[in-house]
Every structure is written in C-alpha cells, then in structure tokens.
Design a protein that fits this description.
Blueprint: H1 5-34, H2 38-65, H3 69-78
Pfam family, one: Rv1893
Length: 79
C-alpha cells in the first residue's frame, strides 16, 4: 500500500507529539534522580526512551504497511 505525503506528515506530527510528551516525563524523572532516587529515575528515563522509540517504529510501520497490529489483535479477540 502506498502512502501519501499527507499521511507521512500526520505520522511525523504524531511521532513528534508523543516524543515531546515523553520528554516532559524524562525531565520529571531527572528530578527524581536529583532528589536521590537514582535507580528509580534512571529506570523511568530508560522506559520513557524505549516508549518513544517503540512508538516511532510502530507508527512508521503502520504508515508503510497500512495496518495497525494492535488494532488487529483487538479485532481478533472480539470476533
């Protein structure tokens, strides 16, 4: 399935929006490190970073394939 430039822009906007939201979480997690919770803050930063990457890959995959695996899984469970 081919994608349109409009779809690519929408996907890029979605990825960027998600990354900015997670970046604010990372800043909050850094404050936990400053307050002394190094392990918890670091773990949360790593998790938020992985969430950014996972979302970007999933959204890009959806753009190129035209499918959303999470939606397909839900549809299969409902049937």
């Amino acid at each position: 399935m081919a994608f349109t430039p409009k779809d690519a822009v929408a996907a890029a906007r979605d990825i960027a929006t998600h990354a900015v939201q997670k970046a604010s979480d990372i800043v909050e997690d850094a404050s936990h490190i400053i307050k002394g919770d190094v392990a918890g803050g670091t773990s949360a930063i790593v998790q938020d970073s992985l969430d950014i990457a996972t979302h970007a890959v999933d959204r890009t995959k959806e753009l190129f394939t035209g499918t959303d695996e999470d939606t397909e899984d839900v549809d299969d469970e409902v049937d």
